[in-house]
């Protein structure tokens, strides 16, 4: 488990002035990773770390010797077009590079001149998916989401009897995961309207988003081995924001008996920045089960997990419609919640994923599942906020939404904030719905 160290000290300041501004997502205590290049150029994509409104070009920092010597091989590994090699180096490497960056970016650091020449403004950057994602697994860790969606799909048995015992998930599609800014066409598919005997084929009529966190695997495990709870977090590189776009009408018809398929495989959007578990250390909270619920089986339990296996990440979903854009109005908030309400922790997901001998690889991605909180206004998807489309949301300009319409942009934000710690943020995860292809 990551503990607090000198890199978390809330009083640290950087010689990058924008990193010291209150409310910035990227103070010196955060140092999240992305893969970027200057927008509109043919430059190679390469790894970088956010500081204020700048990006440290890590490969350049390595080649110019702008960091302490023991961290240079790790910075050099980040110079590649994906972070997989750095992820595979393990938590010792991640931590050494973080410490070297923290020291070199502090006010008064002698590296200022050399490292200052390795900065690229975020306003000039474009990003790509930061890892080559071999496999993507989407979980279902909010009991509040599982219960309210279950009520809509199966009023007689909303929460399946397995839910409180086994972390539910399905193997998703990696090829359609793109970085924030993704634009995708409304999917086509089969739907079965109530009372009909034959399905229709055409554009999805119930397009939804899902507010999730993504979990990047750092180091993998050999096949036919499992990762015990006490080691699970050392295999996790960090977290990002994730939008699991969902075609609800397609999902309702196809999901039994093997689970979601085309309703989920057309697009998934991730934020460019990965916030490391080490950066999140101040925001750990205890994992506890509500009274009367079963305790996890021993392979999903550990003292460290009970003490601090959950994370208090504040999450927010906003909608920007074409009408809002035309009026120059800002986006409207649809809901807000925290990751602390999840029923299973990061460590439990990784331990469970491997318990049967499944090998994980560096860069594999887990989705947390829709992160709905306990109250209705904390719901992480429209299907819940509108009670299955029956109670449309009223937007500030008088417009209404049951589900997403063409031109809608969904924006997700995440951050951690508490007295006595530096506020850190995840940046943004943004995606836009385009009209469907011809049926
Ligand atoms: Mn999902």
Automatic annotation (TrEMBL):
UniProt-listed Enzyme Commission number(s): 3.7.1.2
Keyword Transmembrane helix set for record: no
Keyword field contains Calcium: yes
UniProt GO MF annotations: fumarylacetoacetase activity
Residue ranges constituting the Fumarylacetoacetase-like C-terminal domain according to the UniProt record: 139-433
SUPFAM superfamilies attached to this UniProt entry: FAH, Fumarylacetoacetate hydrolase, FAH, N-terminal domain
InterPro entries referenced in this protein's UniProt entry, alphabetically: Fumarylacetoacetase, Fumarylacetoacetase-like_C, Fumarylacetoacetase_C_sf, Fumarylacetoacetase_N, Fumarylacetoacetase_N_sf
Pathway: Amino-acid degradation; L-phenylalanine degradation; acetoacetate and fumarate from L-phenylalanine: step 6/6
One Pfam family it belongs to: FAA_hydrolase_N
Transmembrane segments: none
Domain Fumarylacetoacetase N-terminal stretches: 29-130
Keywords: Calcium, Hydrolase, Magnesium, Metal-binding, Phenylalanine catabolism, Tyrosine catabolism
Cofactor names: Mg(2+); Ca(2+)
Name under which the protein is recorded: fumarylacetoacetase
């Amino acid at each position: 488990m990551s503990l607090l160290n000198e890199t978390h000290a809330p009083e640290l300041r950087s010689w990058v002035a924008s990193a010291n501004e209150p409310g910035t997502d990227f103070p010196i205590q955060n140092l999240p990773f992305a893969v970027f290049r200057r927008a509109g150029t043919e430059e190679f994509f390469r790894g970088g770390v956010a500081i204020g409104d700048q990006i440290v070009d890590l490969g350049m920092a390595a080649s110019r010797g702008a960091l302490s010597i023991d961290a240079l091989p790790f910075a050099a590994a980040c110079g590649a077009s994906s972070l997989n090699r750095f992820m595979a180096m393990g938590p010792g490497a991640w931590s050494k590079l973080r410490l070297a960056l923290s020291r070199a970016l502090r006010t008064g650091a002698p590296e200022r001149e050399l490292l200052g020449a390795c900065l690229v403004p975020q306003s000039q950057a474009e990003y790509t998916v930061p890892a080559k994602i071999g496999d993507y697994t989407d979980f279902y860790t909010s009991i509040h989401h599982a219960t309210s969606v279950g009520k809509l799909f199966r009023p007689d048995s909303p929460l399946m009897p397995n839910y409180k015992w086994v972390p539910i998930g399905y193997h998703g599609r990696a090829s359609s995961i793109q970085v924030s800014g993704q634009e995708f066409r409304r999917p086509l598919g089969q739907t079965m309207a109530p009372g009909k005997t034959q399905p229709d084929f055409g554009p999805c009529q119930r397009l939804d988003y899902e507010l999730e966190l993504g979990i990047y695997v750092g180091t993998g495990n050999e096949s036919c081995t499992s990762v015990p709870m006490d080691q699970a977090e050392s295999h996790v590189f960090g977290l990002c924001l994730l939008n699991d776009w969902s075609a609800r009408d397609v999902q309702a018809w196809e999901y039994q008996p093997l689970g979601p398929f085309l309703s989920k495989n057309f697009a998934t959007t991730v934020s460019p920045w990965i916030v490391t578990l080490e950066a999140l250390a101040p925001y750990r909270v205890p994992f506890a089960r509500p009274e009367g619920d079963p305790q996890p089986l021993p392979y999903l339990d550990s003292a460290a997990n009970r003490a601090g296996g959950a994370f208090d990440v504040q999450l927010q979903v906003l909608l920007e419609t074409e009408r809002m854009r035309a009026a120059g109005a800002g986006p409207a908030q649809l809901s807000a919640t925290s990751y602390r309400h999840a029923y299973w922790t990061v460590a439990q997901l990784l331990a469970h994923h491997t318990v049967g001998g499944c090998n994980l690889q560096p860069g594999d991605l887990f989705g947390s599942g829709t992160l709905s909180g306990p109250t209705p206004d904390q719901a992480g998807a429209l299907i819940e906020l509108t009670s299955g489309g029956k109670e449309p949301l009223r937007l500030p300009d008088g417009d209404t939404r049951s589900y997403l319409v063409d031109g809608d942009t969904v924006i997700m934000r995440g951050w951690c904030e508490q007295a006595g710690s530096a506020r850190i943020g995840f940046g943004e995860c943004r995606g836009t719905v385009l009209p469907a292809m011809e049926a």
